[in-house]
Amino acid sequence: MLALCGLALLPWGTLRRRLLVVDQVSVTGLRYLDAPKVRSRAGLREGLDLLSLDLARARQLVLFEPRIRSARVTRSGLRGVEIHVEERVPAMVVEHGEPWEIDADGVLLEPLQAGVVADVPMLAGPDFSNFRAGSQIQTPEVRRGLAWMAILSDNALRLSGQVSEVDVSESRLTRLVLLDCVRVVAPVWPNGARQLSGLWVTLADLTAKGM
């Protein structure tokens, strides 16, 4: 009885505020974003009440960031929280009044800094000024440009690093502009790595001849 009375007299509110609180919020998987921005998105910080944490809501808030493809929010240790994210990787640059980016799923990404975009080919033709960041765009032009980027990135071809622009403005053909300003008139859709390997051989031969 004395022990129970002693427990009842303990300052549980003060102990909870001192002990049952988050002491660390770690963020893993980052590539372009910074940890403070992700923590702010999740609404998580040191000092929050451990017993009232809503990890599912924190995960949903993180996913509101267009550049995050997937997220996982879990407890770490006794009083820590870990946010693991998978970011979207820019696949092409597009026109949005100024250069913006899209990933391989066609999701539109606003630059992290004005005027600074990834070193990837430009998708010439369509304009995306009326779309908001995070919009997934699946127009024929976008799907065609991404299909070309996927096959040009084939390790056997080694062509993606040579392409500066994929022009899909014409419905009957696709134009590839290389870094050395060579223009390649190609089919509307890529016709396979085997056929495109001939393009790589031709370009290598022209380079060897200084043409």
Describe this structure as you would to a colleague:
This protein has 211 residues and is α/β, with parallel strands linked by helices. The chain is 29% helix and 26% strand. The chain has helices spanning 2-9, 12-19, 35-42, 55-63, 140-152, 193-208, and strands at 24-28, 68-76, 80-87, 90-95, 99-103, 108-109, 122-127, 163-167, 174-178, 183-186. The strands form 2 sheets. It has a 7-stranded mixed sheet with strand order 6-5-4-7-8-9-10, with helices on one face. Strands 1-3-2 form a 3-stranded mixed sheet. The protein starts with a helix and ends with a helix. The model has no long low-confidence stretch (mean pLDDT 87).
What is the topology?
Elements (H helix, E strand, L loop, with lengths): L1 H8 L2 H8 L4 E5 L6 H8 L12 H9 L4 E9 L3 E8 L2 E6 L3 E5 L4 E2 L12 E6 L12 H13 L10 E5 L6 E5 L4 E4 L6 H16 L3
Parallel strand pairs: 1-3, 4-7, 7-8
Antiparallel strand pairs: 2-3, 4-5, 5-6, 8-9, 9-10
Helix pairs in contact: 3-4
Shape: elongated
Helix content: 25-40%
Radius of gyration over C-alpha positions, nearest whole angstrom: 25 Å
Treating each run of at least 4 consecutive H or I residues as one helix, how many helices?
A: 6
The low-confidence parts are none
Provide a compact summary of the structure.
Helices cover 29% and strands 26% of the residues.
Provide keyphrases for this structure:
single chain; 211 residues; 7-stranded mixed β-sheet; 3-stranded mixed β-sheet
